[in-house]
Amino acid sequence: MTQNFSDVLVIGAGVVGCAVARELSRYALRVNVLDQAGDVAEGSTKANSAIVHAGYDAVPGTAKACFNVRGNALFEAWCRELEVPFVRNTSLVAAFDDRDLAALEALRLRGARNGVPGLRIITQDEVRALEPNISRAVIGALLAPSGGICCPYGLTFRLAEHAAANGVTFHFERRVVDVARAADGLWQVTTADGGVFRTRAVVNASGLYADELNNTVSAQKLSITPRRGEYLMIDKQYAGTFRATIFQVPTPLGKGVLVSPTVDGTLIVGPTAEDVGDKSDTRTTADGLRKVVESAARVWEQVPAGGVIATFSGLRAHGDRDDFVVGEAPDAPFFFNAAAMESPGLTAAPAVAVWLAEQIGKRLNAQRVTSNVHHTATWKPFREMTDAQRIAAIADDPSYARIVCRCENVTEAEIRAAIRCRIGARTLDGVKRRTRAGMGRCQGGFCTPRIIAILCEELGLKPEQITKFGGGSNLLVTTHGARPATLGLSPERRASSVESREPCHD
Amino acid sequence: MTDVDILIIGGGPAGLAAAIAAHEAGCRNVLLLEREPALGGILRQCIHAGFGMHVFKEDLTGPEYAQRFVRRFHELGLSAQCDTMVLSVTPDREVTAVSPAFGLQHFRAKAIVLAMGCRERTRGALQVPGWRPAGIYPAGQAQRFVNLDGWMPGRRVVILGSGDIGLIMARRMTLEGAKVLACVELMPFSSGLTRNVVQCLDDYGIPLLLSHTVTEIHGRERLEAVTVAQVDAQRKPLPGTDQRFECDTLLLSVGLIPENELSRAAGVRVSEVTCGPLVDEALQTSVPGIFACGNVLHVHDLVDHVTIESTEAGRQAAKYAQGQGEAGIPACQMLQIRDGAGVRGLVPQTVCAGRVADVLPLMFRPAAVFKDAAAVVRLDGEEVLRKRFRILTPGEMVRLVVPKEVLERHAGAGELTVGVEV
Ligand SMILES: Cc1cc2nc3c(=O)[nH]c(=O)nc-3n(C[C@H](O)[C@H](O)[C@H](O)COP(=O)(O)OP(=O)(O)OC[C@H]3O[C@@H](n4cnc5c(N)ncnc54)[C@H](O)[C@@H]3O)c2cc1C
Ligand SMILES: Cc1cc2nc3c(=O)[nH]c(=O)nc-3n(C[C@H](O)[C@H](O)[C@H](O)COP(=O)(O)OP(=O)(O)OC[C@H]3O[C@@H](n4cnc5c(N)ncnc54)[C@H](O)[C@@H]3O)c2cc1C
């Protein structure tokens, strides 16, 4: 099939792959990104706690510790530049007894060695002054002022968009099945659909599957265990119950169940930690959800059962070396790992990306380019606009005045923009993650038919071809006389919008 | 900023009836805002019959019922703005809305009628474990797909919950060629109308599995099957009772939630039982000049009751806008209305007996199924009214009317309760 050449081929379009691609776009390099899914952020990146960790957890001297603290320091600037939400809401680690208090002291010392700024142990009264709704069982806490929260998929999407604006090409629904050294010294990467991509360097950012790709080229074997975490999302009605992210003293399996506000105003409660056999098993379980509620109750006594708007789970890529595996494989030159990136992998992503891009740039003798475009916001959400901005936006484009998602007040203009942009949405979930349409309390009850209709118009598809997240996740079955409802677009505009989208999305 | 006498939010049967009543009470500056492209509310998609038996003594379809009000609305020269989303309401009755035709608009109203209807409970709220594939829909959304968009959501269907929409959709999907395998209900009784159980399940041989629930969802991309288990008296799944249904669609009919985000933001106090605003005998909320009716106030099963209630709300809003609200009437002692045994969600929640015109309507749902029972109204513990029912079920709302004389006879009373006695 295609002989597709690049300088660097990034495998995986999660937050790590997209961050690396964006940083590589600062060099005079031809960069391709491949992902097996139909969109960015379909792996661990879409289902995690979204905490920008301060960095007191990781063992000093590890890659985790180093990239966590450096990533945290970069995070705010990255989010500001890309115009995605970030809040430095601080983190607390709650203690319930004297043993926990001792553990807090150990964490504080560890954090200090890692270079985490401002760590302090606070008393019960101070905790209650900060968080009046916290359980009285909490007798003290470690306060980490640099802890924050973000939107992992929003960040990833904007990173991909910025990378694409600077020449990076993304290929979706391409599952890599083999990486091999060709006779001429280039890497030859084969995909399940028979595609062949030739490249000077490979970045392995394939999340849960990074062990398999590493092990095809390196004798330094790696093994990744999927470790599942289940969550509950709580309605915005409860916003303000907690301001900080509240952890409990960590256990050997992880940081335990946390309670945290999200940047969207909802609250997140979870995760569990359970090793599962299957790298795609993101089921929720009755047992897991019960454990989340039980465990969270130590901090939030009455997790409101009636306020739950969604449940979900994500898989951590837990490596057998108990640390990130980042850098060039010692026995496979020009094969760079960003593997075993379990938590705090999201926090670390910016720092890992900057460091890897520098390594790769040097190894390939690449110059930095000066002509790159800065990130320009793809669109501004209606819900964040002032009245004056709303009036101006509507004057410019009347579809800004048509609300499609009633819970999050997402307009038709935003939905269309999310489909028309470089790394445009192709699915219901793709629209949802780019715009928040369907993420509110009614969970798509109102907007789903409207979004299906817009996707049909924009992409020239029939309703039964629209999927939830690609593959066989079709929303409807074939019917007679089905018609995409039009939302006031003229046929000409519809046709041109489809055409102009095609070349951008391989 | 545009000034209006009465602003009505929502153009379903509630909003329409309120607008018509306000006009008939003499208000000429009435505006109705509706976010859908047409008036009629949820009835636009309810193409089945069974509407209007009380109000018109006729068996109409939803769209026919709605159309009678839409026609009357236009005959009276009332004005509505469709495709218009209300974004916010303030306690001093300023309303912000947005529409493609008029952009961002601000209104100031003398009185507001909340008539936003309700939304469906989702899977997230139920926390059914398992995968999260395509093919799981709230029943009302599926109804919209089939009846308004002309789309089929699937071919082999299980329905979770026996609310009316689920029952109606069991029949609808069957008529559209799908195979409906079962309707699964957690409680030992159906939460829908008995006539719907008979006409939508029994007539099509669709089993109703009472005291059962869906315990797991299978299928990574599209739904492939659900596991159904029997539950005990505490509604916990019983081990060893699992059955697997191979299906590509799961419809949820597990409850409706009054849509009160706008109301809450306006400072309107909302009941924990009905999830609708707390109102007085005039259907006025805790914010003066803001009234509520229809499904936003409490979930109705019969549209006729919505019409009757909303007509009253429109009339009361008109009075308020014309300055004849509380001002003209001497202050009187407030009666607190409380749910007695076997009763849930009485509306209204407070009553000023002196302001009751001739009868005080009280609406509630039975908390369980009762056979040969009586609903008993007591004022400060003393029985004042008793009505017998052959059967009372949570699926059928009860409407009682207390004559004004009864209230007058107990002028000093502070508390009114309604309870079920067997
Ligand atoms: C439950 C949970 C909670 C977490 N909480 C936090 C937190 O609060 N803070 C924090 O910093 N971190 C957290 N993390 C970690 C964080 O989510 C991850 O570190 C981060 O998302 C990893 O990004 P990634 O790009 O490496 O992986 P992924 O997002 O998994 O991306 C890998 C991509 O590679 C693609 N891919 C895989 N194999 C192939 C192949 N063969 N061919 C083509 N494409 C392939 C996949 O489709 C996927 O899109 C958490 C993780 C989990 C699971
Ligand atoms: C599937 C189904 C079957 C039924 N079957 C029967 C039956 O057989 N017989 C019977 O008598 N009754 C039946 N009913 C009950 C009856 O139809 C409802 O009780 C009635 O429609 C409720 O009227 P409403 O005006 O309160 O709400 P709705 O009809 O829901 O109208 C509310 C309106 O408000 C609008 N709105 C909401 N928020 C905003 C906003 N922010 N800005 C602008 N507009 C807004 C909505 O778009 C909607 O049009 C059924 C109901 C359903 C859902």
Can you walk through the features of this model?
The complex is a heterodimer of chains A (506) and B (422). Chain A has helices at 15-24, 63-82, 98-114, 124-130, 152-165, 210-217, 286-296, 345-363, 387-396, 412-420, 428-435, 448-459, 491-501, and strands at residues 3-11, 31-34, 51-52, 86-87, 91-95, 120-123, 140-144, 148-150, 169-171, 176-181, 187-191, 196-204, 224-234, 245-248, 258-261, 267-270, 274-275, 308-319, 325-328, 335-339, 403-405, 410-411. Chain A is of the alpha+beta class and 506 residues long. Chain A is globular, with a radius of gyration of 23 Å. Chain B starts with a strand and ends with a strand. Chain B is globular and about 65 Å long. With 422 residues, chain B is α/β, with parallel strands linked by helices. The mean pLDDT of chain B is 94. At the A-B interface, helix 7, strand 18, helix 9 and helix 12 of A face helix 3 and helix 4 of B. Bound molecules: flavin-adenine dinucleotide (2 copies). Residues 9-15, 33-36, 41-43, 46, 50-51, 85-86, 115-117, 140, 143, 164-165, 168, 259, 262, 294-296, 300-304, 306 of chain B line the site of one flavin-adenine dinucleotide (FAD). One flavin-adenine dinucleotide is lined by residues 11-17, 34-37, 42-45, 48-51, 53, 175-176, 205-209, 229, 271, 314-316, 341-347 of chain A.
